[in-house]
Design a protein that fits this description.
By secondary structure, the protein is α/β, with parallel strands linked by helices. Helix content is 41%, strand content 15%. The protein has one domain: 3-Layer(aba) Sandwich (Rossmann fold), CATH 3.40.50.720. Strands 3-2-1-4-5-6-7 form a 7-stranded parallel β-sheet, sandwiched between helices.
């Protein structure tokens, strides 16, 4: 009997796949059988090696999602890897830190362009193909605990991730009856480039660890199971969910 988590024959686009959470999600989907189209601003040699080591087909696309320019190229290259794009994981994101009173327009725009604008228009481009052939598909947005909470000194990041949670629900409402599942994962505090400043601050790091019931920072690999689940037939009746993977942070 085929596992409901089997992704054999599926093609997945994963953005921000060169490192951290995007790399971990790519490897998890690859282990489940999916072909991986990895999108990143820098070389993805390590991600390619890890995916190929588990027998997955891999194609890297070097692209900067600070503008909409690469979107059609990403989709075109992905369509050349498999018969269609079945899964889209919108993981690419950036962060800027400053007190709200001092926050610059550039830092606002830079974050919103990558985290929200490009995410929406890449999703739109992929969904057009999914709708055109009637085959449905899975969209997984990587949200944040800041989709639920305010945080401090990251106004554009909080706004973008709160917006992404709302966008996830809107797209789910529009596309659920058309066979496209749109859901999100909200990672907690993980060991990634985005949290390096926090981990290097002894007080902030101690405060954060003190609130996490699991008692540790998340490892990127901890996100893989949730991504495979939401990308798989096991999640066919799940729409518009923002699933925290946070070591119990929101339960505290």
């Amino acid at each position: 009997m085929t596992s409901p988590f089997d992704l054999t024959g599926k093609t997945a686009i994963v953005t921000g796949a060169n490192t951290g959470l995007g790399q971990a999600v790519s490897v998890a989907l690859a282990r489940a059988g999916a072909a991986i189209v990895a999108v990143g601003r820098s070389a993805m040699d390590e991600t390619e090696r890890l995916c190929c080591d588990v027998g997955a087909k891999f194609h890297g696309v070097q692209a900067d999602l600070s503008t909409l320019e690469p979107i059609e190229r990403i989709v075109a290259e992905a369509m050349g890897v498999g018969e269609r794009v079945d899964i889209l994981v919108n993981n690419a994101g950036i962060i800027r830190r400053a007190d709200a009173i001092d926050f610059s327009e550039k830092d606002w725009d830079d974050v919103m362009n990558v985290n929200l604008k490009s995410t929406f228009f890449l999703t739109q481009a992929v969904a057009r193909r999914m709708l055109a052939d009637g085959g449905g598909g899975k969209v997984i947005n990587i949200a944040s605990l800041l989709s639920f909470q305010g945080g401090i000194r990251i106004p554009s990041y909080t706004a973008s991730k709160s917006g992404l949670a709302g966008l996830t629900r809107l797209l789910a409402c529009e596309w659920a009856a058309k066979g496209i599942n749109v859901n999100a994962i909200a990672p907690g505090y993980f060991v990634t480039n985005n949290t390096e400043a926090l981990r290097n601050d002894p007080k902030r790091s101690s405060d954060i660890l003190g609130r996490i019931p699991a008692g540790r920072w998340g490892d990127p690999g901890d996100l893989g199971g949730a991504a495979v689940f939401l990308a798989s037939p096991a999640a066919d009746y799940i729409h518009g969910v923002v699933l925290p993977v946070d070591g119990g942070w929101l339960a505290r």
